[in-house]
Amino acid sequence: MPENKTENSAKTRQLFTSESVTEGHPDKIADQVSDALLDAILAKDPNGRVACETLTSTGLVVVAGEVTTNCYIDMQKVVRDTLKEIGYTDPEYGLDYQDCSVLTAVHEQSQNISVGVDTNQTHEQGAGDQGLMFGFACNETPELMPLPISLAHGLTRWHAEVRKKNILNWVRPDGKSQVTVEYENGKPKRVDTVVIAVHHNPEVSNDKIKSDIITQVIKPICGKYLDENTRYFINATGIFVVGGPEADTGVTGRKIIVDTYGGMGRHGGGAFSGKDPSKVDRSGAYMARYVAKNIVAAGLADKCEVQLAYSIGVAEPVSVLVDTFGTGKIAEEKISALVRKNFSMKPAAIISHLNLKRPIYKKTAAYGHFGRNDPDFTWEKTDKADVLRKEAGI
C-alpha cells in the first residue's frame, strides 16, 4: 500500500483501494450461471460433483465442465432464468434471456480425481485438488471485513437495487465501483475517491448520471466517510451505453479479488463459482475465513489471515498458517495451537460443520462471498469465539 509520511508529523497516512462489480457485469453473469447450475444439481443430488465454467459474449452463453450426478437438470432453463433474474431482458443490452444462444459441453468427472476424493471403507474423503487458500478478517467493520471492499460491495449492491426498484429508471445491469479509503496509523478515516461506472440508457445526460449516482447511490452507502475533499469519477469516459457481454466477454472465475477481500490479504488463486464443496478451492477458503473471523471476533487479534494448503486425495492439510500481523493479544504459537484444537480442516469435516451440501451458492456469486449477514453463509458465524476467548484466558 502506498504511504505518505509528513515531515513534521508522527501520523502515517495510506491509501488503499478495492473494487466491486454489479451482478450484471459479464464476469459476474458467468459466475452466477455456474453457481445456479451447481445449486440446481445440489437441490436434487447433494453428493453431486460439479466443476462448471461459463463464458458469455454478445447473444451467447457457453457452459462447459465436469458433472457427476444421478439427477437431470434443464441447463437451458437454469441459464435463461438466471439471466432474467439478473436483468438481461432486452435485446438492446446485447444479451436477452429469451433469444440468446445457450451451448453446453459437459462431461463426467475424471475417475482419476474421484478415486482420491470419494469416501470408502479404506479411504476417508481427500481434497478434490492440490492448492492453497487464504481466509482473512479484521476489526474495521462490524462484519469483520476491510472497509474498502465493504463499501465497494455496498455501492454495487445498491446500484443494482435502484435499477430493480426503478428508483433510477435509466440504469442498465452492468456496472462497477471502486473505493479508495485513507488510513491514518492503520485505521480507516475517510473515503478519498469513489469511482463508478454505470451502464445507462442513451437518453440520459452525463450531468444527470453524476447527480443521481452521487445522491442516490454514493451518499447512502459511503455518507459518513465522505468529506469536501472526496473525489468522484463517474463514467469518466463520458458514455457507457454499450455494456454487458456485448462490450466485454465474461468468464467464470475472473473476479477472485472482488469475491474475497478486495486485495487486502493474500489470495491462493483458486476461483469459487461452479465448484461443489469437495473442491477445497471453495470449501477450504470458506473454512479459512471462518477460522480467521472467529479469531478476530474472540479478540485474539485485530487482524488475522489463515492459510490452508492441501494435496489432492489427502484429508489432512499439508500446512496451516495463522498470521496476525503483529496484532495478536497472545503469542501467535498459542493462537495456532487453539486453531488446531478447535477446528478440523479435513474436507469432510469442513463440509459437515459448515453444512455445504446445500443449494446456497448462486447468491454468493455476486457482491462477495464474505462479510454477508445471511444465515446460509455459515462460514460467517462466530460461534467459536467464546471458546477461543476462554481457552486463551483473555
Structure notes:
This protein is α+β, with helices and mostly antiparallel strands. It is 31% helix and 24% strand. The chain contains ten helices and twelve strands. The chain has helices at 26-44, 75-86, 111-117, 147-164, 206-222, 256-259, 280-297, 332-342, 347-354, 385-392; strands at residues 3-5, 12-21, 49-57, 60-68, 101-107, 131-138, 171-184, 187-200, 231-234, 250-251, 303-310, 319-323. A hairpin with a 6-residue loop joins strand 1 and strand 2. Helix 1 packs across helix 2 (75-86) and helix 7 (280-297) packs across helix 9. The longest helix has 19 residues, at 26-44.
Secondary-structure element series: EEHEEHEHEHEEHEEHHEEHHH
Q: Please give the share of residues in helix.
A: 25-40%
User: What best-fitting shape do the alpha-carbon axes yield?
Assistant: flat
Treating each run of at least 4 consecutive H or I residues as one helix, how many helices?
10
Low-confidence stretches: 1-8
Oligomer: single chain
Mean model confidence by pLDDT: 93
Number of strands: 12
Strand content: 15-25%
Ends apart, CA distance between termini:
32 Å
Order of strands in the sheet with most strands? 1-2-7-8-9
As a whole number of angstroms, the C-alpha radius of gyration is 22 Å
Give the class from helix and strand content and strand pairing. Answer: alpha+beta
